[in-house]
Design goal:
By secondary structure, the chain is mostly helical. It has one domain. 74% of the residues lie in helices and 0% in strands. The longest helix has 32 residues. The chain is globular. Pfam families: ABC2_membrane_2 (PF12679).
Length: 279
């Protein structure tokens, strides 16, 4: 199996620096300290009083906190993936290699999300502290872990596509953090607002339908529903996956146009463009 050379180069550049082990070690230490603090606070210093319900609360808090951290860290690694190459004048060289535009985008997405995936995986032993006291079951952990990994790759994909379309890293970063903020904050606030409208007037099923749909686009709500912390529809994770897969596929078209504009020149109404116009 042939390895993507861009992915291999990015892995070597990112993983061989001192910053990577420092980030991983610091993150795991913070999670361990937070886990002990939450367990200690829940029983007010008497660890033998830890109950499964208390342990479940700690699991929910830790996993939601981890989702917030990785969601807002992902743009920091992916927002300048392609626009950075363009600003360093190395994108033209990259486009002359045998790598296809899809291969370039795939290499950037995987390399941008690799460190975040590693951060999530190395915290698995921390969750074992919670399992010691019961409350959470392995199926919940697997579901939460899988959902977090999907969310990281999905956000990294969005950021790399924005980075390709926006041409400049500044605009790409603004678009990435704006999108993550909408996902994490705006969708949650609007969804709960519509739910409150339905509770005040139960006849308005329209509000309930849209509340469930918009809340299903919020990663924190979907993760909480997987853990049983909120009452979801049971298919929120499916709505989350198909919606963002469609968004990424739609953004893929202008991204390919930025990288290989001559591919689209033969389409009806298409103009003759070259890569040089976007570098």
């Amino acid at each position: 199996m042939r390895t993507n050379p861009l992915l291999e180069k990015e892995f070597r550049q990112r993983m061989r620096t001192m910053r990577t082990p420092v980030i991983i070690t610091g993150y795991v230490l913070c999670m361990v300290i937070l886990t002990f603090f939450l367990l200690y606070e829940n029983v007010q210093g008497q660890l033998y009083l830890v109950q499964p319900t208390k342990s479940q609360q700690v699991f929910v808090i830790l996993s939601l906190l981890q989702m917030v951290v990785v969601a807002f860290l992902t743009p920091a690694f992916a927002a300048g993936a392609v626009s950075g190459e363009r600003e360093r004048k190395t994108l033209a060289v990259l486009l002359t290699t045998p790598l296809s535009p899809i291969g370039i985008l795939l290499g950037k997405i995987l390399s941008s999300s690799a460190l975040l995936v590693l951060l999530v995986v190395v915290t698995l032993p921390v969750y074992s502290l919670v399992f010691l006291y019961g409350g959470a079951v392995p199926q919940e952990l697997i579901a939460v872990l899988g959902f977090q990994l999907f969310t990281i790759v999905m956000i990294a994909t969005l950021c790399v596509l924005f980075s390709t379309i926006a041409l400049r890293s500044t605009w790409s970063t603004v678009l990435c953090y704006g999108t993550v903020s909408v996902m994490m904050v705006v969708f949650g606030a609007v969804g709960y607002g519509l739910k409150m409208m339905y509770q005040q007037n139960p006849i308005e099923l329209f509000s309930l339908h849209w509340a469930n749909f918009i809340l299903a686009l919020n990663p924190l709500y979907v993760e909480a529903s997987l853990e049983g912390a909120v009452t979801g529809t049971g298919r929120d994770w499916l709505t989350f996956i198909w919606f963002y897969v469609v968004v990424n596929l739609v953004l893929l078209i202008p991204s390919l146009w930025r990288l290989r504009p001559q591919w689209f020149s033969r389409l009806p109404g298409g103009r003759s463009h070259t890569e040089k116009q976007y570098q």
